[in-house]
Amino acid sequence: MLALHYYSQLKDKISDNFIAKLITSTLLILVTVSLAFSQTVKAATLQKHSVKSLGFVQAVQQAQMADPWLTGNRHQQQALESLSIAANTLPDPKVSIGMANIAADTLRFSQEPMTQFKLGVSQMFPRGDTLALMNQQLKAESKQYPFLRQDRKAKVALTVGMLWLDAYKMQQSIALIAENKSLFSQLIDVAEARYSSTIGQAQQQDIIRAELELSRIDDKLVQFTQQRNAYIGQLNQWLMKIEQGNTAANSYQTTNTFDTMLETQLPQIDLQNKALIMAKRQYSNAELVSYFTSHPGVIAIDNKIKSVAFNKALAKQKYQPEWGVNASYGYRGNDAASNSRADLFSVGITFDVPLFTANRQDQQLKAAVSRTEAVKTEKQLRLRQLLGAFSSAKGRLLQLNKRQSLYEQKLLPQFHQQAEIALNAYTNDSGDFGEIVRARIDELDASIDHLGITVEQQKLHLELNYVFSKANQASKFTPATLAQQNQE
C-alpha cells in the first residue's frame, strides 16, 4: 500500500501521532475518491443498460397486450351476440312422410279407400314472448363483457405495477448496498493501516468488526437479489405472449430471464381524486358509493343483474300455452275399378294447457326471483370491497406521507450527520471505530427504509387509482395517465 510505504519513509522525520493522522486522512481521502469513482462507474453502467431497461409504462402496456384473458373475453361476448340472434328464431319446422292405412293382408296401395301416402309439416311456436325475451337477455348479458375487460385491464395494471415497483425497490436497494459495500472495504483498509502502524486507538477488533459488517452486507445483498429475482420472475409471467393458436414451446415470445433491468427513475403516479383522499373530514359510505357506482366492475355486475332479471319474465311465459300448427296432404290411389279417389288434406293446431302449475311454473318463478336477488348481493359485496380497499389504502397512505416527511426532514440528515461526526472523531483519535461502523449501517438502513416508503406510496397510489377507475370513458388506468414520469 502506497500510504504505508510513504509512512515507512517518513517515520524517522515526523512524530508518530502526525504519521497516524496522515495515514488515516490519506486512506479516508481514498475512501471518498473511491466512493465518487464507484458512483461514476454505476452511472455509466446504468446508462449503458438504459436502452434495454424495462419501464413502468412499458411493462403495463406489454402485460395488457399479452393478456390472453382479454381475447377469451371478446370471444365469449361474440358467442353471446350470435346466440342472441339464434334465440329469436322460431324452431325449425318438422316434416313427416309416411304410408297410412295399408291393408295388412295384401299390402296393396289401391285396395282400401283410406290407404294413402301422407306428407305432413308442423311448426311450433314458443310460449308468449319467450323468443324476444331470450334475445334481450343474451344481449344484456353480452353488454357486461366490455366492462369486464376494462376491469381486467385495471387489475392487470395494478398487479403488474405492484410487481414492477417491488422489483424496482429490490434493484435500488441492491445498488445502495453495493455503494456501501465499497465503503466498508475502504474502512477495513483504514483499520488495517492504523493497526499495522501500532499507533493510535486502532485495535484488531476494529478490523474484525468491519469484516463482520461486510459479510452481513454480502448476506443482505444475496437476500435482496433473491427477492428481486422472485419479483422479476412473476413479472415475466405477465409479459409473456403466446402466438394465437400456437401452444408450442417456441411460441413464447418473451424470454424468461432474471437479467431484466428496470428503469432507475421511480415513476410518479398521479393520484386520482386526490382532494377526496386527502380531505380531513370523513366521508359517509353513501357519499363514497356514489364514486364507486361508475367502476367498471360494478357496472358489469349491473348488466349481469339486468340479464338475470329476464329469468323472471321468462318464467312467467311458462304459464301460457305453447302452440303448434300442422298440415298434411294424403295421396290416395285409384280403386279396383280404376276410378280416381279424392286426395285428403288435413290441418290443425296443438297446444298444451298449463293446469298443474304449483309444482312447476310456480317453483320456477320463485327460483328466477331468488337468482336475481342473489346476483344483487354480488354488487353489494363488490361495493363493500371497494369501500374497504379505499379506507385501508387511504389510512396507510396518510401515515406513509408522515413517515416520508420525518425521514426527509429529520432522520436522513441526522443519520448522515452522525456518520460524519463519528468519522471525524475517529480521524482525530477521539472516537471509536465501532461508532463509525454503526453509524454507516444506520445510514444505510435509513436510506433503504426511505426507499421502501417512497415505493410503497406509489403502490398505494395504484391501489387507490384502481378503486376510483371509471367506465364508459377514457380509462383512468391507461398507462399514459397511470404513471407519468417526473421530468424535473
Oligomerization status of the protein chains: single chain
CATH T-level fold name of the largest domain: Outer membrane efflux proteins (OEP)
- The tally of domains stands at 2
Number of helices: 13
Largest sheet data:
4 strands, antiparallel
β-sheet strand percentage: 5-15%
Taken from the alpha-carbon principal axes, the silhouette is elongated
What does this structure look like?
This protein has 488 residues and is α+β, with helices and mostly antiparallel strands. It folds into 2 domains: 2-90 and 126-319 and 354-482, Outer membrane efflux proteins (OEP) (Up-down Bundle); 91-125 and 321-353. It is 65% helix and 7% strand. The protein has helices spanning 2-10, 16-49, 56-65, 68-87, 130-142, 144-197, 204-239, 274-278, 285-292, 296-317, 361-427, 433-467, 479-482, and strands spanning 94-100, 116-125, 323-331, 344-351. It has a 4-stranded antiparallel beta sheet with strand order 1-2-3-4, with no helix packed on it. Helix 4 (68-87) packs antiparallel against helix 5 (130-142) and helix 5 (130-142) packs antiparallel against helix 10 (296-317). The radius of gyration is 40 Å and the shape is elongated.
